[in-house]
Amino acid sequence: MNTKDMITTSLLLAMGLVLHTIVPGVLGMKFDLLLTFMFLAILINPSFKNMFLSGVTAGVLSALTTTFPAGQLPNIIDKIFTAFFVFLLIKFMKEKINPIIRISIISFLGTIFSGVIFLTSALFLVGLPAPIEILIISVVLPTSFMNTFISSIIFKSLYRIGPIRKIISSGNASS
């Protein structure tokens, strides 16, 4: 992982953290923009090292800014497992699907996976304020739709940048 890759990942996660912190929730849901930017960081540089570092970093940053009572450890667990899940999705879909559709699928499935992992770990570690099924239906699914919409808009903006388009299309960040 070279310096350019680390800076790109750091900038994406920093933007996600800032937006995650300042964007208010809607109807009790808060779309996880840090999660969205973690997906983008892994997509732009799909190496195992970047995936692991992005997951750990996003988990720690998310733990520092969580509004869920005692949600620090569940946030770290969920981001690490979600980073690995998204990494596998990216490797599976590599160059088989249009990049815009690919980020939409990755964002939708990644957000659902993240929400289920977060709620499951929170259930076992600290408890939940409502049954897990209700939280998945009322929070995770709507959030996954919002994250998908937002990630596709952000991705389209990034994709217009020539060097980013080349990296994403080739699936290799070390160009």
From TrEMBL:
<feature type="transmembrane region" description="Helical">
    <location>
        <begin position="76"/>
        <end position="93"/>
    </location>
</feature>
<keyword id="KW-0812">Transmembrane</keyword>
<feature type="transmembrane region" description="Helical">
    <location>
        <begin position="134"/>
        <end position="155"/>
    </location>
</feature>
<feature type="transmembrane region" description="Helical">
    <location>
        <begin position="105"/>
        <end position="128"/>
    </location>
</feature>
<feature type="transmembrane region" description="Helical">
    <location>
        <begin position="12"/>
        <end position="44"/>
    </location>
</feature>
<protein>
    <recommendedName>
        <fullName>Tryptophan transporter TrpP</fullName>
    </recommendedName>
</protein>
<keyword id="KW-0472">Membrane</keyword>
<dbReference type="Pfam" id="PF17099">
    <property type="entry name" value="TrpP"/>
</dbReference>
<keyword id="KW-1133">Transmembrane helix</keyword>
<dbReference type="InterPro" id="IPR031360">
    <property type="entry name" value="TrpP"/>
</dbReference>
